[in-house]
Amino acid sequence: MKIEFVTAGSAAGAIAVPAFDKASLSAAAQSVDSATLGALGRAIAASRFKGGAGETLEIIAPAGIDAGRVVIFGLGDKAKLNESVLEKAAAAVVAKLLIGGETAVTLRLDGETNGEGAARAALGARLAAYRFDQYRTKLSDDKKPSLTRVAIAVDDVAAAKSAWANWGPVADGVDTARELLNQPPNILNPETYAKQIQGMAKLGLEIEILDEAQMLELGMHSLLGVGQASEFESHIAIMRWNGGKAGEKPLVFVGKGLTFDSGGISLKPGAGMDEMKGDMGGSAAVVGLMTALSGRKAKVNAIGIVGLVENMPDGNAQRPGDIVTSMSGQTIEILNTDAEGRLVLADVLWYAQQTFDPKLMIDLATLTGAVLIALGNTRAAIFSNDDTIADRLFAAGNASDEPVWRLPLGPDYEKHIETKNADMRNVGEGRLAGSISAAEFLKRFVNDKPWCHIDIAGTAMGGMKDDPRQPSWGTGWGVRMLDRFVRDNYEG
C-alpha cells in the first residue's frame, strides 16, 4: 500500500470526506456536496448514517466530479477528535474500498487535523490494508485487493511526511509480526524463524543466534527440555538496536516463540490445535518492535530476545514427572508438558539479565488460556514487580489502543507453584489463578530487575472483528503498545 500526502487540489481516485456527529458535513464534504448538486446530503437522508466514529457511507459514480465514488466517513464528536479516531476512520475507508475495484483514494483531512493526525490516519490505512493471501492460488480477481494507493490531503504536507517517518516503520513492524503469526508451522519452525531473524541485520540490527550446543553449555535445560522431541533444533535469537547513548543500559524485550505447541505428552485437544501455530505471538511482537525501532532510528538502546522452540510428542519427549535444572540453577518439576512457555522464558529471562544487565525487562507470551477467562480478547494482562513500568505500559496501551490491565502478584500466590520434589512446579493448583501462578513462576527468574510479564493469549490471535485496523487472524498485537512505551518514556 503506497501512502502519499498531498494538498486538497491534488485529489485523485475515489474521494473520502469526513462528517461529524448528527451527519454534520466537514468543509471538504460540503465542497464535494456542492459539486455533486447535493448528492451527499441526499444519500445521508436516505440512509442511517449519523457521522459516528467509524461509520462510512458510499456513493457510487456521483455526477459533477471526476471520481468513481465518494465515501463519507464519520469522525464522531468534533470536540473529541484525536489521532486514534483518525486511525480508525482511515482504516474503515480502506476496509470499505480494498477489494471494491478502486485503485486509489484521497482522504480529505485538510482543515481538520495537523501533520501528526494525518500520519496517524495513514497508519490506520496501512493497518487495514494487510492481507495474508500468499498461499491462496485460486483467489478470484474480485476478491483480490484493488486499492494500492492512499493519498491523504492535509494542509501541511511537509509536517505530515515528517511525522510519517516515525509511524511508517511502526506499520512495518505490525505487518512483520502478523506475517510471522500467520505462517503455517510446516513453513515457520525454530530453524527457519532463526534464519529469518538473521536477515534483519539489513535493518541495522546486530543479530546473534544461539544453537542447542551453546544453550546446553549455558545449562538451559528448562528451555531445551521443551524442544527435545522436535525434529527442529531450538534456538535463541538476539536482536540489538544501539540507538541510544554509548554505555547506557538497554531495554530488553523477551518473547515466547513456540512455533507450534501440540502440548507435548500432555497433548492438547484436536479441536483448535491448528491455532497453536500462533503460540509464538510474543516473539512476533518483539521482532515487530525491533523492526519498528530500527526503522524509525529510535534514540534508545534496545535488545529483543526470543526463544524459538517446537513442542512435540515422541519417544524422546519431556514427561510429566520429569525434573529439570534451569540456567539459574533452580529445579523445576514438570507436571504438565503443555505449560511449556514459562519453561522457555525462564532460561531466556535469566540469560538476558545475566548477559546484558538491562535497565528493565519486559516479556510477552501467549501464556495461559486463563487470561481469556479473566480479560477476554480486548486487553492483555500485565504482572510487574515495578509500579513505574506497569503505569507506563498502562498509559502506552491506552494511547495505542492496545490496552492492558494489571493483575496481582504476591506471597499468597507463590504457594501455588510449591512442590516437595523440586524448587518449584511448572503449573499451579488446578484452575485457580492460572495466569497469576504462571507470572509467579517467571518472577523467580528475574531477581530484582525491574520487570513486567504481558500475557497476550487473548489479544495475539483472532483480531477484533469491529476494528478495521485488525483485518488479520494474526493481529501483531503489542508492537504499537511497546513502541509507544519506548518513545514516550525512554528516548533521549
From TrEMBL:
Cofactor field: Mn(2+)
UniProt subcellular location: Cytoplasm
Pfam family, one: Peptidase_M17
InterPro entries tied to this protein: Leucine_aapep/pepB, Macro_dom-like, Peptidase_M17_C, Peptidase_M17_leu_NH2_pept, Peptidase_M17_N
Active site: K268, R342
Binding site for Mn(2+) 1: D261, D338, E340
Cofactor note: Binds 2 manganese ions per subunit.
Keyword field contains Lipoprotein: no
Keyword Hydrolase: yes
Any one GO BP annotation for this protein: proteolysis
Any one Gene Ontology cellular component term annotated for this protein: cytoplasm
Major place of residence: cytoplasm
Binding site for Mn(2+) 2: K256, D261, D279, E340
Its biological purpose: Presumably involved in the processing and regular turnover of intracellular proteins. Catalyzes the removal of unsubstituted N-terminal amino acids from various peptides.
Similarity annotation: Belongs to the peptidase M17 family.
Name of the protein in question: Probable cytosol aminopeptidase
